[in-house]
Amino acid sequence: MIRIIVRRVAASVLVALGVLTIIFIVVRIVPGDPASLILGAGATHQQIEQLRTSLGLNQPLIVQYGEFMINALQFKFGTSYRLGGDAMGQVLQALPATLLLAATAMALVLLASTVAGVAAARRPGTLRDRAISGGAMLLQSLPQFWVGIVLIIVVSGTLHLLPSGGYGSPLNLILPAITMAVSFLGMLTKMVRNSSLEQAGEGFVQTARAKGMSEQRLFYVHILRNGLIPVVTLAGLVLGVFLGSAVVIETVFAWPGVGRLLIQSILNRDYPVVEAAVFVFALIYIGLNLLVDLLYGLIDPRVRVAVTA
Amino acid sequence: MNNTNVVGPGRAQHAQGSPVLDVQHLQVRLETLDGPLFPVRDMSLRVNANETLAILGESGSGKSVTSLALMGLLPRDTFSVSAESMRLKDEDLGSATEKTWRSIRGSRIAMVFQDPQSSLNPVYTVGAQIAEMFRLHRGASRGDARRAALEMMDRVRIPDAAAKYDSYPHEFSGGMRQRIVIAIALALDPEVLIADEPTTALDVTVQARILDLFKEIAKDSNMGTILITHDIAVAATVADRISVMYAGRLVEEGPTRQVLEQPAHPYTQGLLDAVPNASNERTALIPIKGSPPNLSHIPSGCAFHTRCPIARDECALGVPELLRVAAERDSACFFAEEVMTNAAH
Ligand SMILES: Nc1ncnc2c1ncn2[C@@H]1O[C@H](COP(=O)(O)OP(=O)(O)O)[C@@H](O)[C@H]1O
Ligand SMILES: [Mg+2]
Fold first, then answer.
1. Ligand 1, atom 24: nearest CA belongs to which residue?
2. Is residue B302 part of a domain?
3. How far is B337 from chain A (nearest CA, A)?
4. How far, in Å, CA of A309 to CA of B265, rounded?
5. CB A179, CB A167: distance < 8 Å
6. CA atoms in the 13 A half-sphere facing the CB of B188
7. Distance B60 CA to ligand 2 centre (A)
8. Element spanning A36, H or E
9. Residues B86, B87, B93, B95: is their CA dihedral positive or negative?
10. pTM score, whole prediction
11. Which of A180, A268, B32, B72 could form a disulfide with A105 if both were Cys (CB 3.0 to 4.6 A apart)?
């Protein structure tokens, strides 16, 4: 098991280095000269040349690449052109807001999809099942930004129940978290339902019933744990996708997270912050995948053995 | 009232004759799109404390459906169970609600299923799956349940139980898994144990050891055991009495030795002739001709008449009733006496 973990971690480090390389290339391909950006429209040719030299932009690309990598591995991406201050510092400052949003959305998805999925699987083919499955399908097909805008218009605009944006109170969290959760809520509900239903036909279910337990316990303790095995893999990927959707949702709801920072930095060509933000997202994504692998073994003992053997 | 003292001697008295489980004229109806089918048409059984009853019959004769009916485990949306009477001691199972069934299942009637490969939950440790019985029905604490489960593992002869407690089912062999399933079934000291083909999925050598375990358990407990099997040798090894089932009906019943030495139904005779035993050692084995009937096309009259070597015209017309043909012997054949006389030679 330890050996496997070491191997997975080593692979993750390679992926991280790959991500950094891509960041380096992309930022260099994008049109626009950082030096002229920093100095603004009024700068002279001489000033720009001077800054290019001091930023190292006149050195051969391979040397620039080496320096970039060495700095990046120390989390140094330079100073934000727009905000001043350390670029990584800006990103880390915005990170808790994004994590709070993604974690809330994830908790919402897991809780609701488990309850709804199992409720449907317990009575397959009934009205209850059809309502839940149909609802799940509907949720899954709604575009996220549309859900966000409709929520703002209806819940905060018409009904005045919740704030349409901002940060600080738990009330601010509700609408963006729901928006983030909505499409995956449908997908995971369907998945929990189908995989629980599949497990319900297994032999151990008959034994569990013969033990004299309630259907409640049968489904939530015995069937669900088996049914969750495929769901966990998906949930890990979903968290990754949440980070991606944070870019849109944080912007729509004026939520001060890394997603919104990233968009603003891109619009302002604030490359150090863009680099830092993309790298942080990549690291989280890599970490999540690693976590899913480990969690998988925790839920399914057969994987633990298969992996060690 | 001193309950704890009453249990021991009370149960011993039951051993003298009054049955722990008594089911008369059980019928199971199965709704299908093409109309109802009857996997069990007329089954009766009576098992006493401290006794093993084997239910013998070819595959498809309704043994498993009978056992699930006795556990209240047939899905209510497609199956309906009826019986003239269905009693577990003083409890009327015929009118039991789901809540009553839940308190009976596992604690008063326990069951061992055929395939140990699939009958344990793959994501929980074997120890926890035994301990769950004490937690569910006795409200035992974690520690107490664990101790009790370890004791059960010893009882079903799992070597080094303490070290195996935290193993998962896939780490066990089929035989060891079946021992765990048996430990779960025996955990709460049930009054009735139903084992549905408990050795069929196992290797021959393992089969013998599991059967030994059943014998040993039957000897030191007061339970009534119902062993379901298609294998006459298994029934011969463990059972005190044998009930023979054909196409959902009880066709013969009696003490093991007598049934095997002098069957009172041509079907039982056919089963005997198909396997090696003392009386046909020197002659060829004769399988029963044809195959068991399909549920949707059960022959009229005696369902066995299409395969029966001594069938006559009346066999296709009327259903022979199960009648007493000798002391402790019942048969549902019009010509039971003839069958018994022939067998005696
Ligand atoms: N859920 C079911 N749906 C349709 N037919 C069934 C079902 N369960 C059992 N049967 C039928 O009922 C008959 C008796 O089955 P079973 O009790 O399993 O036989 P046995 O255990 O003696 O081999 C068989 O013909 C089987 O096909
Ligand atoms: Mg069967």
1. B60
2. yes
3. 41
4. 55
5. no
6. 27
7. 7
8. helix A34-39
9. positive
10. 0.84
11. A180
pLDDT tens string B83-130: 999 999 999 999 999 999 999 999 999 999 999 889 999 999 999 999
Strand B51-56 to strand B241-246: parallel, antiparallel, or no bridges (unpaired)?
parallel
Contacts of B122 in chain A (CB under 8 A): 204, 226, 300-302
What's the domain count of chain B? 1
Return the pLDDT at A295: 78
Q: Which domains does chain A have, with CATH numbers?
A: 2-72 (no CATH), 88-301 (1.10.3720.10)
Output the pLDDT for position B148: 97
Q: What share of chain B is helix, strand, coil (3-state, %, to 5)?
A: 40, 25, 35
Q: For residue B137, what is the nearest residue in chain A, using CA coordinates?
A: A212
Residue B63 CB less than 6 A away from ligand 1: yes
Ligand nearest to the CA of B114: 2
A91 vs A76, A101, A174, A276, B338, CA distance in Å? 12, 15, 23, 7, 95
Indicate whether this complex's ipTM tops 0.95: no
Q: What is the pLDDT of residue B1?
A: 40
Letter for the amino acid at B251?
A: V
Which stretches of chain B score pLDDT less than 50? 1-16
Nearest Cβ partner for B120 among A207, A214, A229: A207
- For residue B321, tell me if it sits in a domain: yes
What spacing in Å lies between the alpha carbon of A11 and ligand 1's midpoint? 52
* Dihedral sign, Cα of residue B82, residue B242, residue B248, residue A208: positive
Q: Which residue, A131, A234, A113, is CA-closest to A181?
A: A113
Number of Cβ within 10 Å of residue B221's Cβ equals 18
- Please indicate, yes or no, if residue B274 is contained in any of the structural domains: yes
Nearest CA to CA, how far is B191 from chain A (Å)?
A: 14
Sign of CA dihedral B301, B302, B304, B307: negative
Model pLDDT, residue B15 = 40
Which pLDDT value is given to residue A59? 85
What pLDDT sits at residue B17? 63
Q: Is B37 exposed, middle or buried (0-12, 13-18, 19+ CB in 10 A)?
A: middle
State which residues of chain A have pLDDT below 70: 1, 304-309
First-to-last C-alpha distance (Å) of chain B: 57
Query: For residue B313, what are the domain limits?
Result: 266-345
Task: Give me the percent of chain B exceeding a pLDDT of 90.
Answer: 84
* Cβ atoms of residues B131 and B146 within 8 Å: yes
- B59 Cα–ligand 2 center, Å: 6
Residue B204 lies in a domain: no
